[in-house]
Amino acid sequence: MKVLYPGSFDPLTLGHLDVIERGSHLFDGLVVAVLRNPGKNPCFSVEQRIEQIRGATGHLQRIEVAAFDGLTVEFAERCGAGVILRGLRALSDFEYELQIAHTNKSLAPKLETLFLATATAHSFLSSSVVKEVARFGGPVGHMVPTGVAEDLARLFNQ
Ligand code: ADP
Q1: Contact residues for 153 (Cβ-Cβ < 8 A; gap 6+)
Q2: What angle (nearest 5°) sits at the alpha carbon of residue 22, between those of residues 101 and 103?
Q3: Separation between Cα atoms, residue 17 and residue 142, nearest integer Å
Q4: Cα(86) to centroid of ligand 1, in Å?
Q5: What global pTM score does this model have?
Q6: How crowded is residue 140: how many other Cβ atoms within 10 Å of its Cβ?
Q7: pLDDT number for residue 37
Q8: In a mutational test of the pocket of ligand 1, which residue from 10, 19, 120 has the highest number of ligand atoms less than 8 Å from its CB?
Q9: In this predicted structure, which of 65-69, 92-96, 99-103, 109-113 has the lowest mean pLDDT?
């Protein structure tokens, strides 16, 4: 079975990458789906984010990276994915993720949502934290893949 891992990935962090790696071992194929959401005022374009994800997942088998907009459940169906994968870091993620999972279930009853608990080492990581540190010139090499760290340095002119 194929699994869809949707998100903003603005940018990809080592927490995301850990979920992708572990998810890819559990399923026959994993589609990383980058949400086109101009409302969120992203730092990186969808194309840049796709490049970052492709660059960091080259060592993995059966990974596809794609952009999508509209309903996640419809994109999952178009990809032939039977499961949506999401990561859980802390209790603070839980309420929001559960609401989305229930909503998706009401829209597409056959589609399941599966949560992977974050690796402890990455539990503090979020794209926003990474951008905040990088904006002020702090080191982010332990938070993101190398290519993303380089993009952040370029973005914030270091
Ligand atoms: P969204 O805007 O959809 O929340 P994100 O890119 O922030 O997109 O996150 C995508 C998914 O990855 C979410 O399920 C989120 O909980 C999960 N995630 C984010 N950071 C981590 C992390 N450090 N460890 C595990 N899962 C994470």
Answers
A1: 134
A2: 5
A3: 13
A4: 7
A5: 0.96
A6: 21
A7: 82
A8: 19
A9: 92-96
